[in-house]
Structures are given as C-alpha cells and as structure tokens.
Amino acid sequence: QGCLQQTRLANAAAAFLSAARFRTSAMSDIVLSVRLLSGAVRTTSCPATWTMAKLREHVAGLFDLPDTELFLTNSGAPVDSTLESVAALAKDPERLELDAVFQWRFAEAAALDPDDALIQAAWSGHAASIDRMLDLGTCLGATASLGLCERICAGTGLTALHAAALRGNADAVTALLARGASAEARDDGGFAPLHYAAVAGCTAAAQAL
C-alpha cells in the first residue's frame, strides 16, 4: 500500500507540474515563424492567448500583400479557426511554425471572366486589384455580364466605374479615373456613374466624378 500511495502522489505531482507549465506557457509569448511558398520566412512573437483571428491578422500584416486571402497550415494541416487560442495550436509551448499561402482575392473570378472580375473589384472597393487587372490587360470600359448585374442588383450595361460609384467606393472611383475610365459612360438605362454616386449618397465619389 505504501508503494501504491507513493505512486499516486508522484502521478498527482507530475500532473500538477504539467498543468502549471501549461498555464505559464499560455500566459507567455510564443516565437512565431511563418514561411511562404517562396521560402521567405518572417520570425516574430505573439501572446499565447491570442485568438485565431488575431493570429491571422498579425500574419497578414507581416507580409503586407493587399487584396489577398490568407491560408495557414500547421505541419501540413489547415489551421483550425475554431481553436480558442494560439496556445491550443502550438505543440511546443515556446515556438510555433506555420506555412502561409496568400491567394489573390480575385484569382478565380479573373480566370473565369476578367471583365466581371474588374467590376467586382470596383464594387468591392479593392483599388489595388483594379490596377492589377488593368495591368494584365483587362478592358477598362467593359460592361458586366447579365449574371453579375443580377447578383449585385444593378442595371445592365454597368461598367467598373458605375459599380464603384454605386457602392460609394471613392478610392476605386479615383483609381479607375486615374487609369482613364470615362465619367461619361452610360449604362443601358442612360445613367452615368455620377447618377450612381448620387443614389449611393457618396459625396466623395460624386466629387471625384
């Protein structure tokens, strides 16, 4: 019985120390290494108590790649966004190594229909993607497909400038005008982008036009 009691005490002590170490690690910073497919690595640190959303925001800020979506993997497996904290993700309480893939937000749309992708970028207010698609040769004055017009509840004959004005995206309006978009372009109903900006109630977009 004496040996059994000693074993139980030893196990209890080990469990207590393990829990104590976990609590300590959960309160401290973890060294974070993030690697891109290109092999580039950024090393920083983050609190073990950070949520997955905060971790993703931090990693995205390390590389500053606009208009991209971030995909994180840990040892080849996608990072579980439902985990409560970085501490729950890290196998090592002091270090976490992740792989990051940044995918251009409009990659799939541009592959299917470059014209619609440009209009979607304008509708969403992504000025960097507008420049990127125009650099790739997308037609500045292209009009939206019927399917896209239906999805965004807009009239037919919609150009990227109309879309940006309708959503009140002044930065996108400015980017399109800087690239030569016509403020006089009319949709199939005869409305110019300025009419759309007025409907949106966006003074900044209207002034740019």
From TrEMBL:
Record keywords, A-Z:
ANK repeat, Repeat
Q: Which InterPro entries match?
A: ANKS1/Caskin (IPR033635), Ankyrin_rpt (IPR002110), Ankyrin_rpt-contain_sf (IPR036770)
Stored Gene3D superfamilies = Ankyrin repeat-containing domain (1.25.40.20)
Q: Which Pfam families match?
A: Ank_2
ANK repeat spans:
156-188
From the Swiss-Prot or TrEMBL record, give the protein name: ANK_REP_REGION domain-containing protein
